[in-house]
Amino acid sequence: MLTDIRKILFATTLERETRAVTEMAASLAVKYGAEVIMVHALEPLGNFGRAIVDSYISRELAEKIRTEGRQELMQEIETKVRTFFEEEMITDPAQQHLLREIIVREAMPEDLILQVADEQNVDLIVMGSHHRRGLSKVLMGSTARKVVELSTRPVLTVPLRD
């Protein structure tokens, strides 16, 4: 039996070089009549960053700033992503429905991608991948590599040029 692609999870970092990934996700959605669920992860502030912030302002104020700023940032990212996808990637107004949902959450990217893929029961994950060589590949790790290794769903990686 052939695989039916009805839901595509498109993981975006909002970097300029991810246009090729956006084009791939949109192209596949049009070809298969699939819905696109876009995901963007806001990486949590680490312990070191939190300690620096906490040393300059009260914990309560820091938490208020983080909470309010996070919500505002998530809304802004969602608006930018939706506008970019709808205006630049979908050329036929009849295809506007392809972008079903945008999910922006604070999480490690690989965790969010895998979580949303399961929650939404997607058929395919589309994401970019920096092709690193040598020691940087070993030391830095790769969100795409982690997703490919841990996913129970097909993952299409699109090469990004540094």
From TrEMBL:
The keyword Nucleotide-binding applies. It comes from the Bacteria. InterPro entries: Rossmann-like_a/b/a_fold (IPR014729), Universal_stress_UspA (IPR006015), UspA (IPR006016). Transmembrane segments: none annotated. One of its GO terms (molecular function) is ATP binding. It comes from Thermohahella caldifontis. It holds the Pfam family Usp. The lineage of its organism: Bacteria, Pseudomonadati, Pseudomonadota, Gammaproteobacteria, Oceanospirillales. This is Universal stress protein. Belongs to the universal stress protein A family. Keywords: ATP-binding, Nucleotide-binding. Residues 5-159 form the UspA domain.
